[in-house]
Amino acid sequence: MAMSDTVSAAPFPGARFGNLLRFAGLGAVALAFLYVIWGLYMAAQPVYAVLTFALGAAIVILYGWSRFYTWRFVFPGVAAVAVFIVLPVIYTSAIGFTNFSATNLLTLDRVQAYHLQRLVKEEGSKRPFALTTAGEIYFPADGDRPALITPPLGSADPLPAEPALSEPETEAMKAVMANRAALQAATVQTPDGQILTMDGLRAFSASAPFYTLQPDGVLLGADGSRLIPNPEIGFYETEEGEKVTPGWRVPVGWDNFRDIARNEGIREPIVQIFLWTFTFAFLSMVLTFSVGTGLAVILEWPHLKGAAIYRVLLVLPYAVPAFISILVFRGLFNQNFGEINLILSQLFGLKPDWFTDPALARTMLLIVNTWLGYPYWMLLIAGFLQAVPKDHYKAAALEGAGPLRCFFSITLPQILPPSVPLLIANFAFNFNNIVLVLLLTRGGPDIPGTLLPAGSTDLLGSFTYQMAFNDSGQNFGMAGAISTLIFAVTGIIAYANFRVMQRLAAKRSAR
């Protein structure tokens, strides 16, 4: 027994090599994380550096010690949820409490640096120049200022100017034009410490900062003007109270949410888009389910000839990439040259304004979404129908029940319970179906009289996208606030889905 215990306790050579390889891999992972952490720290991103350190430490600890073996199977999923769901949601929600926008992109330090970089030409510092054949900048003698010459362009930064012992051979103005970019980028330092930059095609002159930073943060201009920082709105202001761009990011608390609730130019389009988003998601869910179920029931009819061919043809919209189908429909619904208006015009004398009339644009959106979504439900319901006992239909036929009564009394009650969670998921998907909107209608037609870029067919997701990335103002703060509300609504839908699934599971177990 003792010998067997000794033998079993001795590690195998392969196990030793495996442990060595594992620890070497963990060491490489730790070094890679340290490199990324250092880069984030040097980029002045301490929060991301701490989060990256926590992630790297968790990986090394969990996969380095055997006592945490069971956690290794849970950690990848938890880490993925934290990195790709929780952190983006927290970051987006945090933006909703700031004034982050196209005019408030920078930090206060960068805004100060931007204003301090403004230069003004010093009076009396202008000096004519010429470009020599060797690529040097030559300043002829000017009054009591001696002639100066620099090394060739690009040899140093700044170019030190030394007294010229003789007059060099210079190029014509054509050479100056050819080297204009290099001359504009060049700075010249004179023996007395002045920094000269290009001032037109014939002269260099010294520049000085227009603003100087005072201890209280005020920027004092060379002409006596003052820029006063306002930390509440994130802008420098003149003494008359005018904002000076660019601004910087500052917390604004609940201001964005108050604007959503109180400002009519913001609240009204958001309420309208919110109601349309719910309507669109609900009608899309009902229409795709109804059309898919109807086609699945028809294809299951035993007397239907060529059912396999019909099934293949009807599933084709599901096989074609959605963005291709959407772009094709955009051409079909073209008000002037589309085939749909051409047919309606020939048959009924109608040419609907699909893209300019709000009601017709929304109808078009539902038609296209139904076309894209019914094959999924057709295939799904076809599978559910296989579980419906055929004896029920035989018994109903003996009692004289027709097809409609069989469907509503037998088929629908048995396929609806397993479909409910999927219907809720379908509602949640269409609630954020911004790809369809952006490709088909681009949110149009516009809603008149709004302070934000809002369209009649915009969903909350596409409305937020347009505001954050397509609008000239790029109001990321307002977009973050609206996204926070979308997160809350989607979370409620997900919770409802979870509760419905729990109840269905409880009913099945009770049976």
Automatic annotation (TrEMBL):
Q: What is its main location?
A: membrane
Keyword Disulfide bond present in the record's keywords: the answer is no
| Pfam families registered for this protein in UniProt | BPD_transp_1, MalF_P2
| Positions of transmembrane segments | 20-41, 47-66, 73-91, 273-299, 311-333, 364-385, 476-498
Subunit structure, interactors included: The complex is composed of two ATP-binding proteins (MalK), two transmembrane proteins (MalG and MalF) and a solute-binding protein (MalE).
What's the stated role of this polypeptide?
A: Part of the ABC transporter complex MalEFGK involved in maltose/maltodextrin import. Probably responsible for the translocation of the substrate across the membrane.
Q: Which family does it belong to?
A: Belongs to the binding-protein-dependent transport system permease family. MalFG subfamily.
Q: What PANTHER family does this protein's entry cite? A: MALTOSE/MALTODEXTRIN TRANSPORT SYSTEM PERMEASE PROTEIN MALF (PTHR47314), MALTOSE_MALTODEXTRIN TRANSPORT SYSTEM PERMEASE PROTEIN MALF (PTHR47314:SF1)
Q: What is this protein called?
A: Maltose/maltodextrin transport system permease protein
Q: Name the source organism.
A: Pseudoruegeria aquimaris
Q: Which gene codes for it?
A: malF
